[in-house]
Amino acid sequence: MEVLRLHGYTEPEKVEIAKQYLVRKQRQQTGLTEQNIDFSDEALTTVIRNYTREAGVRNLEREIGNVCRKVARKVVREGDKYAVTLTADNVNDYLGVMKFRDSEVHESSEVGLVTAWHGPRSAAQF
Fold first, then answer.
1. Average pLDDT rounded to a whole number, residues 85-114
2. Per-residue pLDDT tens for 57-89?
């Protein structure tokens, strides 16, 4: 049996990639400036944990782009002076309900909590 190692980015690496490249790229594509939108490290961590689940950063870039487009619409409506700092508290205002929940919550069994269903079983399988 051979072990295949599939490498992905760690959470701190994703935050740094987003800060150095992805945010700047999405700002430029939407015509925003650093004065219009700023992403805190906590906001980027929240996006990574709750809105993307992948080894790479493709969906992270998409979610950052979604935020930038929504802010760009507000800049058009309210003027060039509009500015927002994305924090962990206001991420859901721009991206909506979390797509992924923290998996640690589901590690312990609780009454009424269904974690998996494998379909109907015959009496022979019990």
1. 74
2. 999 999 999 999 999 999 999 988 999 999 999
What confidence tens digit (pLDDT) does each residue in 21-40 have?
999 999 999 999 999 999 99
Give the integer Cα–Cα distance in Å for 126 and 3. Answer: 33
Q: What is the pTM of this model?
A: 0.74
Query: Strands 84-86 and 37-39, how do they pair?
Result: parallel
SS (H, E, C) the chain: CCCCCCCCCCHHHHHHHHHHHHHHHHHHHHCCCCCCEEECHHHHHHHHHHHCCCCCCHHHHHHHHHHHHHHHHHHHHHCCCCCEEECCCCHHHHHCCCCCCCHHHHCCCCCCCCCCCCCCCCHHHC
Task: Give me the residue label for tokens 């700002």.
Answer: 27
- State the residue for tokens 């060039």: 80
Answer yes or no: are the C-beta atoms of 69 and 45 closer than 8 Å: no
Tokens 């979390």 sit at which residue? Answer: 98
